[in-house]
């Protein structure tokens, strides 16, 4: 992007409302010498501060170095979004670019200045990071939780903002029920979201997670391990025998697909004369979501 574009900017398309909708129409850069309160302008890197509650917490050092080298060669192509905050500016979207610009020893960078509320700031930061696939599952879940707790957003409203289903939001929020060490493994990429979901509600989830990492277990193996670890009424249940490589593969895939769609643990017990489909929920909110979907409401 040049400093003085010669043609009107085309609206950006993206998830949910999109950054263009959240930010509104971005005006043309100000004439030299003017100091508009909002718009596109250039600011010193030292005049900006990161937002303390920005969704992204984990920054890959190697990726930052790579971005810094690119910025040093080509400059910062996409502006950083900021808002006035005290005597300086607070970063709304683009903290990774700001960090990389510092490493590239840039003194000034292009920015988009906007007057934004705290809630709007969190929304924009969340959408921008999700559009770039920059957030891990825990960071995304924590951002949803803050928008719910601090600003009164509903799961359905959050789903509209990021263009994802309510069940996706509910599914991610359940990850916050995991012990902190397990959540850290997700942030670090040691286990995937599927592994973490399987461990929700399991006895000694932290110990099971360490075993998943040590033995490099698949999500399916982790689900079986978590089921075996759950306490049963009466006498202990015999461990589930290992499943052959291709046995019931279609049913397993269907369980995962329905689980991702509903944000719940789904089990299918299929036999020659039919079977049983079971859904496990842990909160009344999840039960309400299932009832709405079954009755055709909120779809």
Average per-residue pLDDT, rounded, comes to: 76
Please report the total strand number as a whole number. Answer: 7
What share of the residues lie within helices? Answer: 40-55%
**Number of helices in the DSSP assignment:** 13
Taking the alpha carbons of the first and last residues, their distance comes to 39 Å
- Per CATH, the class of the domain at 18-132 reads Alpha Beta
Percent of residues in beta strands? 5-15%
Would you tell me which CATH topology of the domain at 18-132 applies? Conserved hypothetical protein from pyrococcus furiosus pfu- 392566-001, ParB domain
- How large is the radius of gyration? 23 Å
Oligomer: single chain
Overall body shape: elongated
Order of helices and strands: HEEHEEHEHHHHHHHHHEEH
Sheet having the most strands = 5 strands, mixed
Give, in spatial order, the strands making up the sheet with the most strands: 1-5-3-4-2
CATH architecture of the domain at 18-132: Alpha-Beta Complex
Low-confidence blocks of residues: 1-36, 233-247
Question: What does the model show?
Answer:
- By secondary structure, the protein is an alpha/beta fold.
- Among the domains are: 115 residues, Conserved hypothetical protein from pyrococcus furiosus pfu- 392566-001, ParB domain (Alpha-Beta Complex), CATH 3.90.1530.30; 41 residues, no CATH class.
- The protein is built from 13 helices and seven strands.
- A five-stranded mixed beta sheet has the order 1-5-3-4-2. Strands 6-7 form a two-stranded antiparallel sheet.
- Strand 3 and strand 4 form a beta hairpin.
- Helix 2 crosses helix 3, helix 4 runs antiparallel to helix 5 and helix 9 packs parallel to helix 11.
- It is elongated, with a radius of gyration of 23 Å.
- It comes from Sphingomonas guangdongensis.
- InterPro entries: Chromosome_partition/occlusion (IPR050336), HTH_ParB/Spo0J (IPR041468), ParB/RepB/Spo0J (IPR004437), ParB/Sulfiredoxin_sf (IPR036086), ParB_dimer_C (IPR057240), ParB_N (IPR003115).
- Belongs to the ParB family.
